[in-house]
Amino acid sequence: MKRVILFVITNLAVMLVLSATLRILGVDRYITANGLNLNALLIFSLVVGFTGSFISLLISKPMAKWSTGAQVLDPNSPRNQREAWLLDTVHQLADRAGIGRPEVAIYDGAPNAFATGAFKNDSLVAVSTGLLESMSEEEVAAVLAHEVAHIANGDMVTLTLIQGVVNTFVVFLARVVGYFIDRAVFKNERGVGAGYYITVLVCEIIFGVLASIIVAWFSRQREYRADAGSAHLMGAREPMIRALARLGGLEPGELPKSFEASGITGKGGLAAMFASHPPIPARIAALQNARVI
Predict the structure, then answer these.
(1) I need a labelling partner for 9 at 20 to 30 A (CA). Which of 60, 137, 160, 247 fits?
(2) Does the annotation flag 277 for ligand binding?
(3) Cα–Cα distances in angstroms (integers) from residue 64 to residues 28, 82, 105, 193, 220, in the given order
(4) How far apart are CA 106 and CA 92, in angstroms?
(5) How many CB atoms sit inside 10 A of residue 96's CB?
(6) Cβ contacts of 194 within 8 Å, gap of 6 or more
(7) Residue 127's Cα: distance from chain center in Å?
């Protein structure tokens, strides 16, 4: 969750800095000087929307290492048997998936793992000490396969493109609404006034929240695909099912009778729409019904 939050914060920060810079340079004033120039506004929105996303993607590896304190393992000289096993397992999974061997790292923390990086052949797979200590080797391997599947599926790049598209719409629509409010409500007929800038700021916040629901929905779908990818790379679905059950605080093999939870923590309401991961029971159910090739 920390890396997702950092991605969103970094992306929004870059977008706001770019927006403010272009505003200082007079681009906003140029767009609205003689009526709203929709073509110029669209170009402006594309620049602001996608630049932030791609900068976030390009710095995702160092940001992930910094935010988690992950220590990258030396593939040529592992310090112990656990490190040697981790490196060998990730490398075998990467070879099976047809991608370049990623960096492998360990970080201190509760049971979890993640993959990140801008390119399939230059990525990072990190696993927490909590996960290594609480799972069997087969379960850890299934989680690693899930992360390798993320890389093989190009999920980081696809998520960046989705984020860029929704950012573009946020910037574009906020300014269209701001221009309309400035003219219709504040009766400003020359350039743009305070009503425009206030409306743009408010709309960017509101539209940004709505856009994050779209990005979260896509993120949940890619988790299902990565679970299926883990089953494919492992040759069976059971290891990932047991790993998910362990992560969900359930005893391996013990599954709930209902899979109707609406959030990753089992809570309902609005929070479920913003969750980057589906409920673990739903992921287990999807794996049980999936075909493993």
Answers:
(1) 247
(2) no
(3) 34, 22, 11, 41, 20
(4) 18
(5) 15
(6) 186
(7) 17
Q: Is residue 37 part of a domain?
A: no
Q: Are 59 and 10 in contact (CB under 8 A)?
A: yes
The answer on 6 and 107 residing in a single domain is no
Residues 18 and 61 in one domain: no
Indicate whether 76 belongs to any domain: yes
63 is written with which tokens? 């940001």
Provide the domain count of the chain: 2
Task: Specify whether 18 is located in the same domain as 142.
Answer: no
Across the chain, which has 293 residues, the per-10-residue mean pLDDT values are 54 63 59 65 81 83 88 94 96 96 93 89 92 93 96 90 87 86 78 81 88 88 94 94 84 37 39 82 89 65
- Whether residue 76 is found in the same domain as residue 22: no
Asked whether residue 7 falls in the same domain as residue 137, the answer is no
State which residues form the domain around 186: 42-292
Spatial neighbors of 144 by CB under 8 A, at least 6 apart, are 86, 89, 90, 93, 113, 125, 127
Can you give the pTM of this predicted structure?
Answer: 0.79
Q: Is residue 129 part of a domain?
A: yes
Known binder of ligand: residue 146? yes
Q: What percent of the chain shows pLDDT beyond 70?
A: 78
CA 173/CA 175 separation, integer angstroms: 5
Q: Which residues pair with 122 in a beta bridge?
A: 119
Chain position carrying tokens 């299926």: 228
To the query of whether residue 147 is one of the catalytic residues in this protein, the response is: yes
Q: Is residue 89 within a helix (H) or strand (E), and if so which, with residue range?
A: helix 81-97
d(CA 118, CA 242): 30
Active-site pick, 133, 147, 238, 254? 147
Report the SS3 class of residue 256: coil
